Amino acid sequence: MANVNKDEEDLRKLSIEMRYLEQTAETLQQRINIMNAAMTDLTYANMSIAELEKEKENAELLVPIGGGSYVKVKLANTDTVVVGIGSGVSIEKTLPEAKAIVTERLSELEKTMTSAQQQFAQVAQRINASRKRLESLLATVREGKN
Question: What is the secondary structure of the chain as a DSSP string?
Fold first, then answer.
């Protein structure tokens, strides 16, 4: 009888751990999704800077304004772009400087993404192992009650 109580206690502890692991996995997945969106944004910025390097002053461009809509503009300056540096602050940089900033951000984000994906894989492994242990304990508890 004492063994059944210990199994039930282990079952409760394992259930709590499983909930914690599932919440952790969900949080990591949300972070990964946010990083994917940021990486897409930075990749587009990098491509746009590369294309700007090829343009001449007064070239006509279509600039996206959202919702599949664009505005026609003339390129006034092909030497600099305005780059966000955080907290709503932006500064003017030369194209090579801007490209270096964007490339560095992309590189850092890729490292962070790799780390988050590894953490997610570890949590997923623990969830699977805990799930097997949970199923085994459930079977043991059910047998003990019969």
Answer: -HHHHHHHHHHHHHHHHHHHHHHHHHHHHHHHHHHHHHHHHHHHHHHHHHHHTT--TT-EEEEEEETTEEEEEE---SSEEEEEEETTEEEEEEHHHHHHHHHHHHHHHHHHHHHHHHHHHHHHHHHHHHHHHHHHHHHHHHHHH-
Look at 40 and 145; give whichever has higher pLDDT. Answer: 40
Q: What's the distance, CA 53 to chain centroid?
A: 30
What is d(CA 72, CA 138) in angstroms, rounded to the nearest whole number?
66
Phi and psi at residue 67, in whole multiples of 5°? 65, 30
Residue in the block written with tokens 């914690």 = 20
Domain 2-51+81-145, classified CATH 1.10.10.60, yes or no: no
Domain layout of the chain by residue ranges: 2-51+81-145
Q: Enter the pTM of the model.
A: 0.78
At which residue do the structure tokens 């993404």 appear? 113
Summarize pLDDT for 64-93 with one digit per residue, the tens.
899 999 999 999 888 899 999 889 999 999
